[in-house]
Structures are given as C-alpha cells and as structure tokens.
Amino acid sequence: MRFLPHLIFLGTLVSSALAWDEAGHEIVATIAQIHLHPSALPTICSILNDTSPSPGKPLCHLASVATWADSVRLEKRWSAPLHFVGAVDDHPSKTCLFPGKQGWEQNRNILNGMRNVTNLLGDFVKKQRGGIIVREDMELANEALKFLIHFLGDLHQPLHLTGRNRGGNDVKVLFNGNQTNLHKVWDKFLVEKAIRTTPPKYNYPLADKRVEYSLRGTYYDRYIRQIVAEGILDSWKHEIPDWLSCPRPKISKDAPLAQMTERQSILSWAQWLVPDNDPSKGTDDAVLCPYTWAKKIHPLNCELAWPKELDQEPRQRSVEIETGRMFPRSDFEELELDTPKYAGVIAERKLVEMMLAQGGVRLANALNSLFAEDVV
Ligand SMILES: *[C@@H]1O[C@H](CO)[C@@H](O)[C@H](O)[C@H]1NC(C)=O
Ligand SMILES: *[C@@H]1O[C@H](CO)[C@@H](O)[C@H](O)[C@H]1NC(C)=O
Ligand SMILES: *[C@@H]1O[C@H](CO)[C@@H](O)[C@H](O)[C@H]1NC(C)=O
C-alpha cells in the first residue's frame, strides 16, 4: 500500500517492518480466497501459473501475489499512478471532494486502473472459451490479475483516495512514539496493532472449514478469523449485499433485450445511458464499481483519518509552506496518533477491519463473476 518502494534496507529492523506492510494486502486477498466459488479457482491458478498445492490446501493462493504490484513500481513506472486517486480540490481534513469541479489530479488512477485490468481479464475469458489462447494472452492476464488483487486492497485504504501531501506520505506523525507518516499509520501501524491485540481465542481454528482451508499459517491468521467470525459472519452479515451492489445503469423498457444475451454487450450498451458528467462513467458497471465504492470511503478522510489537529493552530503554520511537505515546526512535537482519540476510535468502530472485509468480499465477487461457472 506504499506510494514508493523502500530504497534503503537497514538490516532486520526494516525488513521485518516491510513484512507488516504486506499484511493489509494479503489479508484482503485471503478474505477473497475464503469467498471464491470453487469453480473459479482452476482458471485463476492457471493464470497465476501456480498449480502445485500442498495436500489439503487450495490449488493456489491469491495472497501470494497480493504485493507484487508494489514490487514492480520502479520497473513499471506507468503503473505507479494506478495505486491511488486524488481530486484537485480535495483537501482533508476541511474539504472532502471526490472529485470537485476540477476533476482528478491525474487521468490515470486506481479507478480506471481497476476497470482496465478487469476488462482485460474479461477479454481473456472470452478468448479462452473460443479456445485460442497464446503465450502473450497468458502473460497479459497474469499481470492484470495480480494488479486487480492489489488494487482492491489499495482502494480500501482511505488515504489512497486523497492526493493531499501524497496521501499523507509527506505528513510526519508519531505512532506509539515511533516516527512515521500519516499514510503509513494506515498502511501499517493500525493493522499491526490490531493483529497484536487480537483476542487469544482466535489462535485456535474456527469451526468453519472454509475459513481454515484458506489460511496459510501466517501471524495474521488469527486476525482474519476475528474479522470473519465477528464481522462477515455476524455483525456485517446483512450489509454484505449492499457492499456488493453497484447502481446498475437504468435500462429502459424499450431496450433491445434480444440483443443483450451476452453480459459484455449489456455492459457496453448500458454505458451509453450514463450521462457524460457522471464521474462513474467508464469505470463502474453492475459488478465492479470502484468509483461508487471509493466515494463512500473517501469522506472518512475528513471525518477522522486526516486528524483535524494538523490543520489547527499552532501546528497549521508549520505546514506546507513552499515544499508541500508537512514538517512540524522545530518547537512542536509531531502529533501522536496511538491515542484513544485516534487509534482508539478507529479500533472501536472496527474501521480497518471493515475496510479489509469490504476489499476481500468485493474482490471475491469480481473474480467469481469473471471466472466461476454457474454464478451471477
Ligand atoms: C510458468 O511457470 C514455469 C515455471 O516457473 C515457467 O517455466 C513458465 O514459463 C511459466 N509460464 C508462463 C506462461 O509464464
Ligand atoms: C492496462 O493493464 C495492462 C495490464 O497490466 C497494462 O499493460 C496497460 O498498460 C494498462 N493500461 C492502462 C491504460 O492502464
Ligand atoms: C515503536 O513501536 C513498537 C511497536 O509498535 C514499540 O515496541 C516501541 O516501543 C515503539 N517505540 C517507541 C520509541 O515508542
């Protein structure tokens, strides 16, 4: 979930910290894996070119490629802007616009990146049904699938949806006394703390075999068990249909239904009906609607993710003069965020867990709709 890969390795301290960064993406991917339709997995694994399972385990695992997209950011420079989106007029904590009158900062962003790779995978499936797959198709689908798995994670990190100070990467703060930045608090520290404080009972397997089957023996297995048991199977159970629903473009009664036998043609046809000034145009369809999903998550930045204290006197004066970076003035301590008022409220409202769960079930739904037989 980082904006830029780490360039300097300072021994074990830093490399173990890197491992934590990966947890968010791998948790989203594992929650998706738990919700995959069994008939979707063979195609997914053949695209991932990974079909040598351990006995009693799934054929392959989405989590094993969940952070690939971060590792190729330097090599594939064109992909760097696809990890986030920022609106020109957006300025949390005071102003949250998604987007405002001036639109997005960059034309290429996570919303159309997700659409691009999903369409590529849809084309691949069509070609495969026609039986004419060549090596280049396999390679393109492989890359597209790894990006899709990653982008679903990034879309559910609220600071990936604002461009202010590079999504908070340039905002220095403290977490439990450790110097870090606001972006990383969400990428890493909140997830790390939640994993550390998972109740010990989740060290033991759940009765639900679908969950255990998809776990990989990682340090965050217990956190996934908690998210599934308390959230997905319990308190959010009735919200999940809403999480998955995308506002379908209305199709008029006179529509030429006879021509709409294939899903793909319905989608492209329905796009005409979306007004040109609708920001969801070109990215959202009936199954995958990154704009609609992100628009609901984005207000969290003004509500609480971007601490209001950073924009208040006396800190405010230290901020963003010329460089656009928020360095605290030397006579002020950086703002501590591992406090009841910040990290405590986020934990109480289960916001990180909810974002990871939404990312996971939405990813599973998109993959099922692309690859599973007899669903949708
Ligand atoms: C699949 O993986 C094998 C072994 O790692 C490799 O030799 C082969 O080139 C890969 N195929 C594709 C299409 O990437
Ligand atoms: C779409 O995704 C493919 C596969 O990753 C990539 O090669 C291509 O550059 C992407 N195009 C855009 C416009 O993002
Ligand atoms: C940094 O955080 C770690 C764990 O997150 C904690 O053990 C350590 O005490 C913190 N460092 C400081 C200086 O507070």
Automatic annotation (TrEMBL):
Name of a matching Pfam family: S1-P1_nuclease
Keywords: Disulfide bond, Endonuclease, Glycoprotein, Hydrolase, Metal-binding, Nuclease, Signal
Disulfide bond as UniProt keyword: yes
Signal peptide: 1-19
Biological processes, Gene Ontology terms: DNA catabolic process
GO MF annotation list: endonuclease activity; hydrolase activity, acting on ester bonds; metal ion binding; nucleic acid binding
Source organism, top-level taxon: Eukaryota
SUPFAM superfamilies according to UniProt: Phospholipase C/P1 nuclease (SSF48537)
Similarity comment: family membership: Belongs to the nuclease type I family.
This protein's name: Phospholipase C/P1 nuclease
